[in-house]
Design brief:
315 residues; alpha/beta; 24% strand; binds coenzyme A; 2 domains
């Protein structure tokens, strides 16, 4: 497949580290040094599905496609206000899609998992024009009294329209099941028959374990994917890495031995927006005119599960 258009959409409310230091025991110095984050966009009066629709319509417009042209729609999402129907159905109804649609929950690497599903559908001859929307609101998963998690996240949506082409050179997905590293537990409706004890637990994270996994998984994914494709690092134009933490990105950069100039980032302005992160960064770089035809882009993302993935794509 080939990327024909990109789009993104962010909540209007911008929360700085100094804003956070007024509501919890933290500081701009701590957050900046440990994460590289300065501000994040946080949902206040918006609906996540409206951000998703905005991103999708922008990507469709850039691709020169209408909703009727789309034959398959994949929405990557961890949490939203609906249990059912799927977020992809809600977005479809708002923007006028009528093709089959699915939600996938693969946490932060959701874009790469979505790309793999899209590529497989295309190669199986099931669809030529595919829309991917990654929409996440991780700020709604945190306890905002917990400074160890709430300062890390931001909300948003990014979208990509794919059409026929052979620009996806390779995708590798990886799973290391460890559900205790990043998790949130939501209480379901009660019934007259429930006798087990149940709990509502906001986002919990073993930060240092996740940090190590992210760096190890990303560098191993990238090295093995490039080796498999016979592509040298010198041929890579840009690495679009999940924007979780600047220190994670710096460590990946150092292990790969690649220069800063190949790693565009927006972590300072957005925080970690889960699966939306790679697609928002892609769209921002695209709008800045960063990519030229033939550029090789390497996407790498990692997160809860634990899951990770890498994709190599020619622009
Ligand atoms: N402000 C001020 N102090 C804070 C703080 C905050 N927001 N959050 C934690 N601290 C404190 C801790 O309480 C601790 O204090 P103590 O030593 O008195 O107990 C101290 O800072 C160090 O905490 P620690 O958790 O060991 O820090 P760290 O160096 O591991 O950094 C993370 C924490 C979360 C920034 C880091 O582990 C990380 O980036 N992990 C990966 C997270 C991530 O990206 N997850 C998503 C992946 S998809």
């Amino acid at each position: 497949m080939k990327i024909l258009g990109t789009g993104s959409s962010l909540p209007h409310k911008v929360v700085s580290n100094d804003d956070l230091s007024k509501i919890m025991d933290t500081s701009d110095e701590w957050i900046s040094q440990r994460t590289g984050i300065k501000v994040r966009h946080v949902i206040s009066d918006e609906l996540l599905e409206d951000l998703a629709c905005d991103a999708a319509l922008k990507a469709l417009s850039m691709a020169g496609k209408t909703p009727q042209d789309i034959e398959f729609f994949i929405c990557s999402n961890v949490v939203n206000e609906y249990t059912t129907p799927s977020l992809s159905c809600i977005i479809s109804s708002k923007i006028g899609l009528s093709c089959p649609c699915i939600d996938i929950n693969c946490a932060c690497p959701g874009f790469i998992f979505s790309l793999d599903v899209a590529d497989s559908y295309y190669k199986a001859g099931k669809a030529n024009n595919i829309l991917i929307v990654c929409a996440d609101e991780p700020t709604r998963m945190c306890d905002w009294n917990d400074r160890t998690t709430s300062v890390l996240f931001g909300d948003g949506a990014g979208a990509v329209v794919l059409g026929p082409g052979d620009n996806i050179k390779g995708i590798q997905l990886h799973s290391l099941p460890a559900p205790d590293k990043i998790w949130q537990h939501r209480l379901l409706e009660s019934t007259p028959f429930i006798t087990k004890s149940e709990m509502n637990v906001p986002l919990q994270m073993k930060g240092r374990d996740v940090f190590k996994f992210a760096v190890n998984a990303s560098t191993a994914d990238v090295e093995s994917m490039l080796a498999k494709l016979g592509i040298s690092k010198g041929e890579v134009s840009y690495y679009i890495v999940h924007q979780a933490n600047m220190r994670i990105i710096d460590a990946i950069k150092n292990y790969l031995g690649e220069p800063d100039s190949k790693f565009p980032t927006n972590i300072a302005d957005h925080g970690n927006s889960s699966s939306a992160s790679c697609t928002i960064l892609l769209d921002e770089c695209n709008h800045n005119g960063m990519f030229k035809s033939g550029d090789l882009l390497v996407f790498s993302a990692f997160g809860a599960g634990l899951l990770s993935g890498v994709a190599v794509l020619e622009w």
